């Protein structure tokens, strides 16, 4: 998709509070000097040369000052002065004119293209986990989504090798966070994602590792659900295993007993933590016993839970219920192996909670 900029448009991002980014206060973002003694990083460091080269489109406004980079072309890491909020705000100020233009180009493309426009007028939004950094470990679905995106908002721990897969006409925008420096607040990231989705773009949020395990992907998914927009999560079932203020840990359990009995490894006493998420493998036959023991050791009986049969396949089926009722619901639905069981408050964050089996299966297919 070619994105020529031929006009200037006056748009605003409400969450960015443009009044405090007045151009009269604009200063050069910083002068970066590379430290050649620092080894090259596979990731996007906050003020690295790769970052500005990759995102140079967003600094193309001729009326604004661009970042001054005095770095060796082969250097990948820079030593910079201590970060301050003014550096972050100046960087956002430099980017806003081009972001406004891109929004208008995307809107015009949606309105003028011969393709079918979704009834909602919204573009597709994908939340994609990129794993530890090796692009060969990406799922095929993740690669396809990355290659067809119009704009990708990426984190610091998305490796340079993964970013090399992005299509030539797509736009990349760094929204990474590191200790002491957040290039964008979480609220600003939400607003950017929503603005581009409303413009009809195919939007990809790239996150390192698993986006729904300590990655705040659950917050982004929840934000879009509140806007009535369904986010497609890759490679997930749409249930964050951790979530700030809801689940601060996750435990992976086996439902098999040691000697083929009905007592699954005597784990319930230590696993009955209402602030944790339990993921149970091979637990169909022992779930009644496990649920009873979890409740006995203090897990509330109304804890949200789900069972996922043949997850991610065309035959996927899901049952949602409170923990005390899940085993009966599974029996009624006649779920078979392989079925994964997830127990914890995070299950209520699923867009399918508390749908019936039929409704949930239909929504998953859609």
From TrEMBL:
This is uroporphyrinogen-III C-methyltransferase. Residues 125-327 form the Tetrapyrrole methylase domain. Coiled coil: none annotated. The lineage of its organism: Eukaryota, Viridiplantae, Streptophyta, Embryophyta, Tracheophyta. The keyword S-adenosyl-L-methionine applies. The keyword Methyltransferase applies. NCBIfam families: cobA_cysG_Cterm, PRK06136.1. Pfam families: TP_methylase. GO terms for biological process: methylation; siroheme biosynthetic process. Keywords: Methyltransferase, Porphyrin biosynthesis, S-adenosyl-L-methionine, Transferase. InterPro entries: 4pyrrol_Mease, 4pyrrol_Methylase_sf, 4pyrrole_Mease_sub1, 4pyrrole_Mease_sub2, CobA/CysG_C, Siro_Cobalamin_biosynth, Uropor_MeTrfase_CS.
């Amino acid at each position: 998709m070619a994105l020529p900029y031929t006009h200037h448009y006056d748009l605003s991002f409400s969450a960015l509070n443009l009044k405090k980014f007045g151009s009269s206060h604009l200063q050069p973002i910083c002068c970066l000097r590379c430290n050649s003694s620092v080894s090259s990083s596979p990731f996007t460091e906050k003020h690295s040369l790769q970052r500005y080269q990759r995102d140079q489109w967003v600094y193309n406004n001729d009326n604004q000052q661009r970042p001054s980079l005095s770095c060796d072309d082969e250097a990948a890491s820079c030593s910079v002065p201590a970060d301050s909020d003014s550096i972050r705000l100046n960087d956002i100020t430099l980017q806003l004119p081009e972001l406004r233009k891109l929004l208008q180009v995307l809107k015009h493309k949606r309105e003028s293209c011969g393709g079918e426009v979704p009834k909602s007028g919204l573009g597709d939004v994908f939340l994609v986990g990129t794993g530890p950094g090796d692009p060969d470990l990406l799922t095929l679905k993740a690669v396809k989504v990355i290659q067809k995106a119009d704009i990708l908002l990426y984190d610091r721990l998305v490796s340079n090798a993964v970013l090399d897969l992005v299509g030539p006409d797509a736009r990349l925008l760094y929204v990474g966070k590191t200790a002491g420096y957040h290039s964008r607040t979480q609220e600003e990231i939400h607003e950017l994602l929503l603005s581009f989705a409303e413009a009809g773009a195919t939007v990809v949020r790239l996150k390192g590792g698993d986006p729904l395990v300590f990655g705040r992907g659950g917050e982004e998914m929840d934000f879009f659900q509140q806007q009535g927009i369904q986010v497609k999560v890759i490679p997930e079932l749409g249930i964050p295993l951790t979530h700030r203020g809801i689940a601060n840990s996750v435990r992976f359990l086996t439902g098999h007993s040691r000697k083929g009995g009905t007592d699954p490894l005597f784990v319930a006493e230590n696993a009955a933590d209402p602030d944790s998420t339990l993921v149970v493998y091979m637990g169909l036959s022992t779930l009644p016993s496990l649920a009873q023991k979890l409740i006995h050791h203090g897990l509330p009986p109304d804890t949200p839970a789900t069972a996922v049969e043949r997850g991610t396949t065309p035959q996927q089926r899901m049952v949602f219920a409170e923990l005390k009722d899940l085993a009966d619901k599974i029996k009624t639905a006649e779920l078979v192996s392989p079925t994964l069981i997830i127990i914890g408050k995070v299950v209520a964050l699923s867009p399918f909670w508390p749908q019936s089996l039929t409704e949930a299966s239909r929504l998953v297919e859609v």
